[in-house]
Design goal:
alpha+beta, four-stranded antiparallel sheet
């Protein structure tokens, strides 16, 4: 069973999901739509879906710093990214 974890931007109009957390793109879209129904209490449109490799870190890296990846909390993973428009 996949975890279907979603990350949202501050404005809740852009959503991200790690590809490995979903069965396929349709599963990602359905998870976003279900979240909109459950949390935002409305339907939403999921569009402009992209798949790309991203870098994430909770601790961050100081600018102009050279550091081994193994000495950081950096995660490199492939993500779905999509625009979301919540219907009122």
């Amino acid at each position: 069973m996949k975890s279907n974890f979603l990350l949202w931007n501050e404005d809740m109009d852009r959503v991200y999901g790690k590809v490995s957390d979903f069965e396929n793109q349709g599963d990602f879209i359905n998870t976003v739509k279900q979240y909109c129904k459950d949390v935002e209490e409305g339907d939403c449109i999921v569009e402009n879906i992209e798949i790309d490799t991203c870098v994430s870190t909770c601790n961050g890296i100081e600018a102009e710093t050279l550091i081994k990846i193994k000495d950081t909390d950096i995660e490199i993973a492939t993500y779905y990214m999509a625009d979301v428009c919540i219907d009122d």
